[in-house]
Amino acid sequence: MLCQNCTKRAATVHLTEVVSNMKKEIHLCEECAQAKGVAIKTHIQGLEIPEFFGQLAQTHGQTASGASTEAQVRCDACGLTFEAFRNSGKFGCPDCVASFKKGLVGLVERIHGGTQHRGKVPNRATERIAKQKELMELREELKRAVTEEAYDLAAQLRDTVHKLESKLGYHTDGADECSSCLTCRSSRAYG
Amino acid sequence: MFELSHLQVLSGVWLSGGGAEADVVVSSRARLARNVAGFPFLTRASEEKRAAVEELVRASIKGSSLRGRVNYHDLAAMEHVERQFLVERHLISRDHAFAQGPRGVAFAPDERISIMVNEEDHLRIQSLRAGLQLREAFELANEIDDALEERIDYAYSSQFGYLTACPTNLGTGMRVSVMLHLPALVITREIEKVFQAVNKINLAVRGLYGEGTQASGDFYQISNQVTLGKTEAEIVDNLASVIPQIVKYERKVRQTLLQVKRVVLEDKIWRALGVLRFARTITSEETLELLSLVRLGVHLTVIEGISTSTINELLVLSQPAHLQKVESAKLSSHERDVVRARYIRERLSKDMGPVG
Q: In this predicted model, what pLDDT tens digit does every residue of B40-58 receive, in sequence order?
């Protein structure tokens, strides 16, 4: 079907309007639809997700160079590029959200009208957040104990901190010490 | 062949025809999308990873407090007709039925709960209730979610909430929907106004079998689109606040039709019933169309002696996979139409007494 406006390109945007109880169908190509300022929201339903994202990228397009560097951003965990995500409309893994955060926030806002989750928090996440808070407090105490040269207390605290960190998965591969971990390094320092 | 025979006769409680506003609201549904932390989503997952997710989730379901409440079925090992059967029952989605690779579903015998494993997301928890019971549907799905969460580490971020394969599900991962029967609004073409109003407040309209399906036989599904930035309660309330208005509108138009065009409407309804009671061959499309009219007739008390649950049952049991299960045979499309017509005649005679 040809676009009813330019009669040159294929109509890909199909609108149904009801004007004074008469149903009217309008078929436009993407260019004419955009030129006529057809709000995306009114035809989201007829669009496949990838098309939808493609359009968003167009309508809200960044400068060409900015867009291309952003498109090349790759998820560390699964290797998906932002561009591939935009084309398919699907993330590759749970880490994509963090990897693509810069380009994603605007997109999420356009889909949902918000960018901050306000709903349910998994109990386990609550537990984890509480543990992280506890860890931070313990680290402060440890620092204080070291400054005050209370080494017995410091040693105890260090073990507690280490245990908690292991629980939170900070010490990978079950190693007793790890080079990237502050506690392990500082424990070596006063060791 | 897989043992699903107990489902043939027993319809899910959501088909009971009960629940609030049952003349217009067929059922309420809540579904939660969840993923296991540390695993890629299905589009980027190798066969091994998919199998690992399936195994982990299956073991978690069996090890959780849901043990005994739900039964787990391996979809990859199931025959085509069995999977189609579960789709017709709304226990799994079409995509899930006809996808490839390790995947499964756990559901309760009363069909109020189903947990799809390796659909678009690692887990899709859904709860179905009869009539308008959105809050109840949400609470049940939420309870299942709590039980599973004790065993499964979900992918979650404090900013984007539950992490899902598609950005349209981020946040709560929740889609709540109601299935509405809107014949009067369709006949009078007022339905377009409803669609427009509903779209304006960010709700989506879909067909009988959810995403990507055409609405047919005057049955429509209305659901939330926004899943992030609002609490679950707000999303449920938003949808729940709109439905009574649509219900009221449909009822008003039904009454107007009765007043203005009683004979025409009654004629349509009685002819529909006539065809269903006497036809010797009938397609599923025609069945859906006629059952919709009969359902309307029952709720306008034009027709007496048939219950809503009978109609709901016919809607499900007259579909291809169900007929083949009833007959325990693979049927050609023509054979199905013959069996369908016979089944409908017999079922209606049970309620209304034999004809002629």
A: 999 899 999 999 999 999 9
CA B168 vs. chain centroid, Å, equals 21
Query: Tokens for B91?
Result: 């226990």
d(CA A19, CA B199): 17
Q: What amino acid occupies position B215?
A: A
Closest partner CB to A111 (pick from B167, B172, B189): B167
Percent of chain B with pLDDT over 90: 72
Count of residues in chain B: 356
Task: Give me the residue label for tokens 């609470």.
Answer: B139
Q: Give B160→chain A minimum CA distance, Å.
A: 5
Q: Tokens 């995306």 identify what position?
A: A40
DSSP-assigned letters across all residues of B238-271: HHHHHHHHHHHHHHHHHHHHHHHHHHHHHHHHHH
Determine the distance in angstroms separating the CA of A186 from the nearest CA of chain B, rounded to an integer: 30
Percentage of chain B lying above the pLDDT 70 cut: 94
Does the structure show a pLDDT above 60 at B214? no
Residue of B nearest to A126 (CA): B158
Q: What is the structure's pLDDT at B292? A: 94
**Where on the phi/psi map is residue A177: left (φ > 0), alpha (ψ -120 to 50), or beta?**
beta
Q: What is the pTM of this model?
A: 0.76
- Residues B324-352 pLDDT 10s: 888 888 889 999 999 999 999 999 999 99
Q: At what angle do helices B333-352 and B232-278 cross, to 10 degrees?
A: 90
List the single residue in A80, A117, A122 with the smallest CB-CB distance to B154. Answer: A122
pLDDT digits (tens, 9 = 90+) for B258-288: 999 999 999 999 999 999 999 999 998 899 9
Q: What share of chain A is helix, strand, coil (3-state, %, to 5)?
A: 55, 10, 35
Best interface-test mutation with B: which of A120, A121, A172 has the largest number of B CBs within 10 A?
A: A120
Rounded Cα gap, residues A82 and A80, in angstroms: 7
State whether A113 and B226 contact (CB < 8 Å): yes
Distance between CA atoms of A108 and A47, rounded to whole angstroms? 17
Bridging pattern class, strands B25-34 and B174-181: antiparallel
Q: What angle do CA B207, B172, A88 make, to 5 degrees?
A: 65
The rounded distance, in Å, linking the Cα atoms of B116 and B93 is 9
Chain A residue with CA closest to B35: the answer is A94
Least Cα separation, residue A64 to chain B (angstroms): 24
Considering only CB atoms, which residues of chain A are within 8 Å of chain B?
16, 18, 21, 23, 41-42, 45, 49, 77-80, 88-94, 97-98, 104, 107-108, 111-125, 129
What is the ipTM, given to two decimal places?
A: 0.86
Q: Is B127:B29 a contact under the CB 8 Å cutoff?
A: yes
Going by C-alpha positions, the residue among B170, B288, B169, B176 that lies closest to residue B222 is B176
Spatial distance between the Cα atoms of B260 and B187, rounded to a whole number of angstroms: 13
